Amino acid sequence: MAVLLVPLLTLVVFLVLVGLSARGLSDAYGNGGSISVADVSLIQDRGRLYLDAKAYIDLPVTIKAGLDNGVPLVFVLTLRFFEPTAYWFDKKLNTIERRFSLTYYELTRHYRVKSLDTKSNKNYRSLSAALRGLGDIQRLPLEVNHSTSFLVDESLSDELSEDDVFAALDFRLDSRSLPLPLQPVITSSWRLASKELLWLVN
Questions:
Q1: Burial, 21: exposed, middle or buried (Cβ in 10 Å; 0-12, 13-18, 19+)?
Q2: Is residue 40 a contact partner of residue 52, using CB atoms and an 8 Å limit?
Q3: Is-above-0.90 flag for pTM?
Q4: 155-173 tens-digit pLDDT
């Protein structure tokens, strides 16, 4: 009996989400969902680089329905360092990704935010509190390669070129991490991403 309940529940979730999509939820932005990134800063401490940022997350109805019906959400934070060029593509220096999951547990009625990189997690009693916790990026350690090592190593400051170095940060829902049966039908309704925030590093 328990074996039959799993595909049945999956089908119910599928039908609920498809029904929501069919009622005109063509994309997240058209349904009130959004992510915005602000208060970004890079912190250098004892030869290491850390990131502070705030991501303000508003889930649209489609994604809330999926979350409350047991669909885990994975969010990706991407930080890029690059040197812009006038006549060709930007010179890529380093790209750093951090992944976080948001899951709802019906049995205990709580939300869990988990860092998929460090495996650390925290539980919340409400979705609004969980979204605030998810978007509160504090002292996130960043591993930089030799191309951007000057950011944390003062001894390399003389080797820095005259070219400006920019950073770009975005925060988005990873629709590819959704359960496979849901992806082909509702992908367009599950696109949720911030605009890329750019700033001059040096």
A1: buried
A2: yes
A3: no
A4: 554 454 567 889 999 999 9
